[in-house]
Amino acid sequence: MSAQKTIHVGGEWRAAASGAVREIIDPADADVFAVVAEGGAEDTDAAVAAARSAFDTGKWPRTPTPERAALLRRVAGLLERDRERIGALESRDAGKTLEEGRVDVDCVRDAFLYFADLVMNESGGRVVDAGSDDIHSVVVHEPVGVCALITPWNYPLLQASWKIAPALAAGNTFVIKPSELTPLTTVALIDLLTEAGLPPGVANIVTGAGDPVGARLAEHPDVDLVSFTGGLVSGTKVMRAAADTVKKVALELGGKNPNVVFADACSTDEGFDTAVDQALNAAFIHSGQVCSAGSRLIVEEPLRERFVAELARRAGKIRIGRGSDEGVECGPLVSRQQLARTEEFVETALKEGAVLRAGGERPDGPGYFYRPTVLDQCHRGMRVVREEVFGPVLTVETFRTEDEAIALANDTEYGLAGAVWTADPGRARRVAGRMRHGTVWINDFHPYLPQAEWGGFGKSGIGRELGPAGLAEYRETKHIYQNLAPRPVRWFAG
Ligand code: NAD
């Protein structure tokens, strides 16, 4: 594949029909480090046509489950083989540390293995008792068809794998549109799918902008399902664009995720250290560019000063820099726009009365870096508390009662994830039970399991990824009713 042939249609790599290209920027120094094809509506239509033909007349949807599962396992093996190469590419493209890039590849591998196992362990159709020996009735699940997969820049390959692995496991064909900022590892994955033996036309990719490529996919009459991960603004556009053709829509959107800390979790030195350490991790891993980032610390009032002081001290010591440099713990923000957005959020918060305890500035030098920032004395009236920053900014709110803690945790239009820290098991279950979020951690933050569904309440989205529901998204349900002894009905007398 030459540098600019990053559009894959019907098994062939090609440049954009228009000849347009896009420069890919290394966020650690703002230099161009790759050039990709800038696809348009014409490329998108060609990719959809290839996926449509591979679904309607190709063999993949009718390939036996063990063969499909075996292919997914081969992809997992290839990811293991190429872990260093792809991990390093992800690190550079998305501004992660090298270790984060490697871990991402491991998680991508695990997604392929999980969905391979899941389809192999299914029992097939569900026989329904129709109340007669003459009727054989069964409910089966079939691939939904051509899937449009639209992904964001923060976990480019991981988010792609949560869509591609179940889509393929279920027997679909797809067109993926990675983020225009970070397309490189998704392009690399398409090569691995081909190497693993996926037939031409099943996996197609169009690199390019949200509009026109993503917008065209969402409205396209030959697309049966659109699965989108990204921000609320683009997500609502996708949903509107998909409405005219009544295609299935799955949305994984943003979050404004609470991390609720009760004082009893910190009654020992070890408990205090753990809760502070995890609050740091919750907010600042990948410079806060995580949909489930614990960006709202909600701490019990008597603990606040001690907790925030230690958090701010440690936030100030986080080593930021190029992800491949030795000892770096946090990379840059992904783009100039994301940096400007973060700066603006902090400036506004300070004007609104927030108290700066750490960070609040960018370091000298090139690249889109911003220091991990802790804003104390925050409240619901502030924009930074309500809206997703998607940068290294942690706000602090306080509570005095359990009810107040729950009310604050749920006081968001989103509902992706949240955590509660407490030493009281009864309280842990009560609070977790009342939190309106798709994932609730008790005394932890951030882990997910491929076997457990991921997704959000409220404006965090529609549908679920991972787990059995993450496979069900990519299927249609069909009832087959067979009459073994057909007779006239005689409803009409004549
Ligand atoms: P974004 O919405 O800007 O872009 C996401 C994707 O949508 C990109 O590929 C983009 O090109 C495309 N797009 C943009 N406009 C479009 C349109 N009109 N039609 C179709 N596609 C369009 O999001 P982003 O900035 O890349 O990613 C950050 C967002 O993603 C955050 O809000 C984050 O919370 C969210 N996210 C959510 C999850 C989750 O699991 N819920 C995971 C990762 C990221």
Structure description:
- Helix 2 (65-81) runs antiparallel to helix 4 (98-120) and helix 3 (83-94) crosses helix 4.
- This protein has a seven-stranded mixed β-sheet with strand order 14-15-16-13-12-17-18, sandwiched between helices. Strands 9-8-7-10-11-19 form a six-stranded mixed β-sheet, sandwiched between helices. A three-stranded antiparallel β-sheet has the order 5-6-20, with no helix packed on it.
- The model has no long low-confidence stretch (mean pLDDT 97).
- The chain has helices spanning 41-56, 65-81, 83-94, 98-120, 156-169, 184-195, 210-219, 232-243, 269-284, 304-315, 336-351, 383-386, 402-410, 425-434, 467-472, and strands at residues 7-9, 12-14, 21-26, 31-37, 126-128, 135-143, 146-150, 173-177, 203-205, 225-229, 248-252, 258-261, 296-300, 355-358, 373-376, 393-399, 417-421, 439-442, 461-462, 475-483.
- The protein has 494 residues and is an alpha/beta fold.
- The longest helix has 23 residues, at 98-120.
- The protein binds nicotinamide-adenine-dinucleotide (NAD).
Number of helices: 15
User: How helical, in percent, are the residues?
Assistant: 25-40%
The overall pLDDT, averaged over residues, is 97
* Low-pLDDT residue spans: none
Rg computed from alpha carbons, rounded to a whole number of angstroms: 24 Å
The portion of residues forming beta strands comes to 15-25%
Strands ordered across the widest β-sheet: 14-15-16-13-12-17-18
Termini distance? 69 Å
Number of DSSP-assigned strands: 20
Structural class: alpha/beta
What does the largest sheet look like?
7 strands, mixed
* Bound chemical compounds: nicotinamide-adenine-dinucleotide
